[in-house]
Amino acid sequence: MTSDPTETPLYASPPCFAHELDDAEPAPTLSPAEVAAWRKDRRAALIAARLAVPAAERQHCAAEIAGHLDQFVNPGPGMIVSLYWPFRGELDLRGWMAEAHGKGARIALPLVEAMGRPLVFREWWPGCAMERGVWNIPNPSGTPVVTPSVVIAPLVGYDTACYRLGYGGGFFDRTLATLSPRPMVIGVGHACAAMATIHPQPHDIPMDVILAGGGRVISRTA
For position 50, which CATH number holds? Predict the structure, then answer.
């Protein structure tokens, strides 16, 4: 494991195509519209790269990152931890999620209630009622709305300044801007999500920690 943001990332395997993505970085003088178009292209390539990762490798990466999470989050009574229900090749941390609940932490999942609005966090526990939400992702149904003290967010891409490239809807940035006190925010993803920069814009909010496959750990406080 490394916390040196200048160290070369460790890539999990050739299917990640991370070396190809680095060659596509644009000049740093793009307009906001050009950045948006570039991000759209990079987002599609990064999602394709992680979908190409074999299932067994995804499981190994998820187990590796679950171990790193234990070093940053000590789930227990009085803590509310938001995670996510995986889709489109995201790392499956539902095992860690269930274990954190078993240790006494309250668990939440983020819901999209309306486009252009902040996320809502509903409490989750093993066996709670679920329903299909936006993008057909399962969400807790009718459980209490809570405010998390820790947010663990999936990422499409990330850079060495702890900025996260998401799906383009701006939901996490919009949500983090409204939460007070601000929770600890951890981005998690595949090794092939590494980027030289996402070309952060004024609305982008950096993560506190990025955990990626291949033992990559980046912290803003390191």
Answer: 3.40.50.10420
